[in-house]
Prior knowledge:
InterPro entries: Mur-like_cat_sf, Mur_ligase_C, Mur_ligase_C_dom_sf, Mur_ligase_cen, Mur_ligase_N, MurE/MurF_N, UDP-N-AcMur-Glu-dNH2Pim_ligase
Function: Catalyzes the addition of meso-diaminopimelic acid to the nucleotide precursor UDP-N-acetylmuramoyl-L-alanyl-D-glutamate (UMAG) in the biosynthesis of bacterial cell-wall peptidoglycan.
Helix content: 25-40%
Main location: cytoplasm
Distance between the termini: 53 Å
Shape: globular
Number of strands: 26
Bound molecules: ligand UAG, adenosine-5'-triphosphate, 2,6-diaminopimelic acid, magnesium ion
Low-confidence stretches: 1-28
Radius of gyration: 23 Å
Pfam family, one: Mur_ligase_M
Largest sheet: 8 strands, mixed
Amino acid sequence: MPPAPSRTAVEPDEGPSGPVPSGDGPTGQEDVIRPGTVVPTSLEALVERITAATGEAPEVRGEVDGTTTGATLRAGEVRRGDLFAALPGARAHGADFADQALGRGAAAVLTDPAGATRPAVGTVPVLVHPRPREALGPASSRIYGDPSSHLALLGVTGTSGKTTTVYLLEAALAAAGATTGLIGTVETRMRGRRVPSAFTTPEAPDLQALLAAMVEQDVTHAAMEVSSHALAQDRVGGTAYAVGAFTNLSAEHLDFHPTMEDYFAAKARLFDGRAQRHVVCVDDAWGRHLAGMVEATTVSTTGEADWTVADLVAHPDGTQSFHVHGPDGLEVPVELALPGAFNVANALVALACGHAVGLDPVRLAGGLATVAVPGRMQRVDAGQPFLAIVDYAHKPAAVEALLTTLRDEVSGRVLTVLGCGGDRDREKRPVMGALAAQLSDLVWITDDNPRTEDPAAIRAAMLDGAHRAEGARAIVAEEGDRRAAIRAAVAAARAGDVVVVAGKGHELGQKVGAEVVPFSDVDELMTAIREDPA
Length: 534
Ligand SMILES: CC(=O)N[C@H]1[C@@H](OP(=O)(O)OP(=O)(O)OC[C@H]2O[C@@H](n3ccc(=O)[nH]c3=O)[C@H](O)[C@@H]2O)O[C@H](CO)[C@@H](O)[C@@H]1O[C@H](C)C(=O)N[C@@H](C)C(=O)N[C@H](CCC(=O)O)C(=O)O
Ligand SMILES: Nc1ncnc2c1ncn2[C@@H]1O[C@H](COP(=O)(O)OP(=O)(O)OP(=O)(O)O)[C@@H](O)[C@H]1O
Ligand SMILES: N[C@H](CCC[C@H](N)C(=O)O)C(=O)O
Ligand SMILES: [Mg+2]
């Protein structure tokens, strides 16, 4: 029998314009991860769960004696018996697609009062809730048998380092004897299988389906990234965490969050009681603020905390050795295959998370020595006499951390290829341009994913920042064609330099308008080096 179509494998990233997975897998090889088994759930049980979780009973229109056998918020993916969550959005109202959902056999609709007025909606039972996104998480969890209560789920939030930390955590947990799962920007992994992700944190029904699949696969511990979008949009409602962890906070997504305080408040929702334990990196002021608000185990690479680092040695091959000092006099030697102080912080968070669920720190640390994270500080090596790196830095703090680390690592020059994505935070563009100009010797400002924006205007904003930057040292060139920019950087590289291609990391496509053009920074860099090894 062919495998059932997996609704977790493909999701629309850019909404109505079509499916555009944003987190293509690192290798291109895709497996099928079937959604976990649903527990047929009566509408009465859903009403009860939603009421308990949100403090507000949904108004039921129509018969309440139906049963749901699944849930989705995408009308085009409804299967017979599903609860269709018709959600209000920035671009559409899900209720506008109710005809399609009901035509595909939706058993009931969850929507808001505005959605309930759409004529098509009223032909099946309707649960009307003022905050249907808040209701959808608990409902989905109920439909999938509350999977997060059957494994230890460790959630990592923060502006930077989530993906890296969950990979480190996955490896550490496995080394300490756990059977692991992972959900994040790049992919979902369980039991040696992987599917590329469309979101960093899946929508609630997809998340619960994945967690249920993990439970069925006897996964004991799962590490997942929890984005601020997910927290703000209640994608993780109804999900119980054994541990919630915070890496750091810096300017990003200010198109979605009106202020830094609002952005922090979204991240802080992971620490509102849904996690049994908390791990907080207090290297930045936001982390210290959070640690003052909630009971937390703290980690720091620079100051006092429950978990700290000593005897750090950064090796020329990009690996690092250090000792971790933990609670109760714990001292653990660590070998880390990733460079940079920021990755030491990520490793500390991972170790403290594993320890928080009762695993042995020495065994946990044993898992860190070989972890490579797709598109994060990824070395591209074709025997060339200079270092070549692909990295996912696409926000100011990441660009700063990346270029500062590389500057320390090489004796030669820093050659940077960088762009900014379209339809995303515009404020970060001049800042990223300025940082590149300040911390590099040569910079090529190029295109990232322009999406629906004019790429020349995005480059202009970055160039403006680069030209105004105080103390800028770099020669800055504009080359919109990313392939040409990578080739130009490789052609300019001399022995001892580093060429860094930043912003797209593991991504396998470039989003231009509604199209996705196949593009891999790793492949392009490798090809350019092979053709011109210096
Ligand atoms: C800002 C944001 O996250 N928006 C997400 C949100 O959009 P929205 O609520 O405005 O919904 P909408 O597109 O107006 O559609 C309304 C409703 O109609 C439904 N619909 C819509 C069209 C259709 O044909 N059929 C259909 O049923 C949709 O499923 C939705 O429920 O819900 C939609 C449905 O799931 C998502 O596609 C959309 O993701 C957008 C495209 C996106 O790019 N999100 C990114 C920024 C994101 O979520 N990123 C974070 C983290 C980033 C990071 O880590 O840096 C992530 O977790 O991935
Ligand atoms: N702890 C950290 N502090 C600052 N910068 C970091 C840290 N960890 C990683 N980075 C930088 O940020 C980039 C993104 O890292 P990573 O993918 O691990 O973070 P993320 O939080 O998952 O990001 P995203 O939200 O974009 O998925 C890396 O490629 C690196 O340049
Ligand atoms: N999860 C991030 C990815 C950004 C990746 C970068 N390459 C871009 O397109 O801006 C976002 O949706 O903002
Ligand atoms: Mg990520």
